[in-house]
Each structure stands twice: as C-alpha cells, then as structure tokens.
Specification:
alpha+beta; three-stranded mixed β-sheet; 3 helices; 22% helix
C-alpha cells in the first residue's frame, strides 16, 4: 500500500511541475550604460516580440521590462508561447522567430529617451522553450 501511495504522490508531483512550467526568454547584455548621465531614474528597457512564422501569427506583440542600472540580465516570462505550443487547432507545429531589443533609457531629458540599443533575433521551437534554451547573451550596444 505504501508503494502505491508513493507512486501516486510522485505522479501528482511530476504532473504539477509540468503544468507550472514557465516559458522565458533569457536576455543578457554588455556592462555598458552608454555614457548616460544618470540622475537616478535611468534604466535598461528590454522588449521581446515573438512570431509564430509557421502559422503566420504574432504570439507576443511586444512585452517590455524595465531593468535597473547595475543589472545586466533578465528572464522575460512568455506564457503565451506555452499556450501556442499546446494549441491543437494550429495548421502547423509552431516555429518561433524571437526578437529581443535592449535600450539604455536615460533620464537626463524629459521624458527620458533611448540613447543606444542592442538587437538580436533567432528562431526557436516549442522544445527549445520547454528545455529553457531560449537565450540571448551578451548583446552589444550600437
């Protein structure tokens, strides 16, 4: 009886962990504030856009995250991708083009403005997201 209870508990735990899985886009960039004369309210603006190119659909239209100076990495949660991967009504298996931009938003002007930016795009599959392999590393500012 104990073995059955342990087996049921293990199955429930593994099912809960699968359903609680979070899909993220991991982004890191060079340690550079682009000579911003920060007055305390400057930040990095990170924007993620995701298209399902196989089904010609925009999945994430433009999720933006603000990151304080001194931090050079962020995980952007994209649960919309999980929903797209689980959608059984799609004509083709999803294939995602993920576009990421990072900008230095400097507060020396009102309103604060972007003074430099970095951009990358890559293609990923549902498996890449499930395995946590959607990474943009060391973006370089122009």
């Amino acid at each position: 009886m104990k073995k059955i209870l342990l087996l049921v508990a293990a199955l429930l735990f593994s099912a809960a962990s699968v359903f609680s899985q979070t899909y993220v886009v991991s982004v890191s960039w060079e340690h550079n504030e682009c000579n911003c004369l920060d007055q305390g309210n400057s930040y990095y603006g990170v924007k993620v856009v995701i298209q399902d190119v196989a089904n010609d659909m925009v999945v994430v239209e433009g999720k933006e995250v603000k990151v304080d100076f001194g931090t050079y990495t962020v995980d952007v949660s994209v649960p919309e991708v999980l929903a797209q991967c689980e959608d059984q009504t799609l004509q083709f298996p999803p294939n995602f083009k993920v576009m990421v931009g990072v900008a230095v938003i400097c507060d020396y002007t009102i309103p604060p403005e972007s003074i430099c930016n970095a951009y990358q795009s890559h293609n990923y599959t549902c498996s890449d997201f499930a395995d946590g392999n959607v990474n943009f590393t060391d973006l370089q500012f122009e």
